[in-house]
Amino acid sequence: MIQDQEVLAAEMERTFIAIKPDGVQRGLISEIITRFERKGFKLVGIKIMVPSNGFAQKHYHGLKERPFFNGLCNFLSSGPVVAMVWEGEGVIRYGRKLIGTDPQKSEPGTIRGDLAVVLGRNVIHGSDGPETAKDEISLWFKPEELVSYTNNAEKWIYGQN
Ligand code: IDP
């Protein structure tokens, strides 16, 4: 039974979430973690690091042609970032909902709606789809840095089959 739960946990959807340097400097780490945790998602990886500019360029490689690319990479590498992997049913899509979009267009209640004002300082990153999630998780984390475990609250979050 415990083994089944472990297998289930290992197969659950995962997404990459990063608290950007502005979020860290503004003291928003616990606020942001709380929103994901309270929803019922499970933290399976976390570290704090200052990414190099080259690393930031790898992370944002899809935006290389955009005019704001250099500024964005300089910003991401300007200070500590909290890199995380969150797990749960629908976590990629719903994580984006928790995050919001452009701070000016995001509803109150979302992270960017509540905690950010401009596009270039939007405090948080979240993978935008399953492929990106996979790529970003493997860029930021070694497999052994991710922990598969059963959280006792899961049976209350998902119900029992
Ligand atoms: P997302 O983070 O909401 O998925 P993307 O379009 O993937 O948004 O852009 C990545 C990041 O680039 C954004 O989070 C934001 O920090 C930055 N960015 C996007 N558009 C602009 C812009 O027009 N000016 C400055 N920065 C931008």
TrEMBL record:
Active site: H125 (pros-phosphohistidine intermediate)
GO biological process: CTP biosynthetic process; GTP biosynthetic process; UTP biosynthetic process
Cofactor (UniProt): Mg(2+)
Coiled coil: none
Ranges where the Nucleoside diphosphate kinase-like domain occurs: 12-148
GO-annotated molecular function: ATP binding; metal ion binding; nucleoside diphosphate kinase activity
Keywords: ATP-binding, Kinase, Magnesium, Metal-binding, Nucleotide metabolism, Nucleotide-binding, Transferase
EC number, as in UniProt: 2.7.4.6
Reactions the enzyme catalyzes: a ribonucleoside 5'-diphosphate + ATP = a ribonucleoside 5'-triphosphate + ADP; a 2'-deoxyribonucleoside 5'-diphosphate + ATP = a 2'-deoxyribonucleoside 5'-triphosphate + ADP
Transmembrane segments: none
Main subcellular location of this protein, as a coarse class: mitochondrion
GO cellular component terms listed in the entry, alphabetical order: chloroplast thylakoid lumen; mitochondrial intermembrane space
Binding site residues for ATP: K20, F68, R96, T101, R112, N122
Record localization: Mitochondrion intermembrane space; Plastid, Chloroplast thylakoid lumen
Enzyme class: transferase
Record note on quaternary structure: Homohexamer.
Stated role: Major role in the synthesis of nucleoside triphosphates other than ATP. The ATP gamma phosphate is transferred to the NDP beta phosphate via a ping-pong mechanism, using a phosphorylated active-site intermediate. Shows the highest specificity towards GDP.
Protein family per UniProt: Belongs to the NDK family.
Protein name per its UniProtKB record: Nucleoside diphosphate kinase
Organism of this sequence: Brassica carinata
